[in-house]
Amino acid sequence: MTATLIDGKALGATVREEVAARVAELGHVGIATVLVGDDPASHIYIDLKQKAALAAGMEARDIKLPAATSEEELLATIAELNADDTVDGLLVQLPLPDHIDENRAIEAIAPAKDIDGIHPFNAGCLYLGRPTLVPGTPLGVMRMLDEYEIPLQGARAVVVGRSAIVGKPMAHLLLQRHATVTICHSRTQDLRHHTLDADVLVAAVGRTHVISADMVKPGAAVIDVGMNRGEGRKVLGDVDPEAAERAAYMTPVPGGVGPMTIAMVLQNAVTAARLGRARSARGEAASSAL
Ligand code: NAP
Asked: If DSSP codes are grouped into helix, strand and coil, which group holds residue 70?
């Protein structure tokens, strides 16, 4: 068997087109990105998000603060953007410089504008199974699974990785769709035993080819979130590409999950804008919860 490759590049483009159509319908969707410091990778990510937002017809405010910005100054900037009705979605690029408490910064973002889905309120809603803003990467994975009509109800899903931004929200989204979910991590014993049982296997580890082909159940859907730098800065996944000989569906790296993330963050901005309009129609403050 050779797996059907799940084309994240094409699907990401479709999502961005859908987003652009929704932006046109709403008339105005505004996001603001906040970057503190000079981390080169963070600058690249922010520029990509800015470019994608502008291409979708959004207003995108690009706030770049010097590395010496104090925590209080950052919190004041976030408070201003929370109160600004022209900003529907607010994104603070992580990591922040060491002198800033990341949790304080995240908690300062109005949950209703938290298009990265990282505020504890939104994480809590996800845990409770309530509709909310969810991090872009796991949201993108769900869209991929749906697009390729991969059955989830009653399926055995194994998520390798338990980060707050990928593994944990991924597991909750799969659980909401009635999969039987196992979460594996660095202390899991006999990882292979678990992965071999997975109808749906999501790898979000950050270690090149930690999932070898013989760890994949024949006929499984394999989603590789990993983006690891190999020789010559080549991007390599967490799953050995040989696993495509056993899997029924598999995401390539690059061109799989990667292109979905920003598209889904933009989709979150549209969701935030739509809910924001509904909230102001009810006379509620923009900075309140969803
Ligand atoms: P992370 O915060 O470093 O989390 C990695 C997780 O993997 C942790 O839960 C860790 O367990 C677990 N782990 C580490 N070694 C393991 C092993 N040998 N066996 C089983 N589990 C192991 O990383 P992340 O932010 O979730 O990102 C994961 C990967 O996805 C990275 O390659 C990242 O670049 C990529 N990523 C891609 C996108 C995209 O758009 N495609 C977006 C985000 C992330 P412990 O909790 O026990 O330490």
From this structure: coil
Q: Which helix (H) or strand (E) holds 137?
A: helix 136-147
Exposed, middle or buried by CB within 10 Å (0-12, 13-18, 19+), for 89? buried
User: How much distance in Å is there from the Cα of 227 to the middle of ligand 1?
Assistant: 9
For residue range 50-104, what is the model confidence (pLDDT) as tens digits? 999 999 999 999 999 999 999 999 999 999 999 999 999 999 999 999 999 999 9
Residue 105 — φ and ψ, nearest 5°? -65, -45
Q: Is 116 a catalytic residue?
A: yes
Which residue(s) pair with 158 in the sheet? 182, 201
- Give the closest residue to 47 by CA, choosing from 36, 59, 35, 37: 35
In the structure, which protein residues have their CB atom closer than 6 angstroms to any atom of ligand 1? Answer: 137, 160-163, 165-167, 184-188, 191, 204-207, 210, 225-228, 257-258, 261
Q: What is the pLDDT of residues 20-43, one digit of tens each?
A: 999 999 999 999 999 999 999 999
Ligand 1 closest atom vs CA 140: 40
Q: Which two tokens stand for residue 105?
A: 């910064």
How buried is residue 282: exposed, middle or buried, by Cβ count under 10 Å (0-12/13-18/19+)? Answer: exposed
Best of 44, 183, 225 for a ligand 1 pocket test (most atoms within 8 Å of beta carbon)? 225
Which contacts (CB < 8 Å, 24+ apart) does range 46-50 have? Answer: 46/93, 48/262, 49/91, 49/262, 49/265
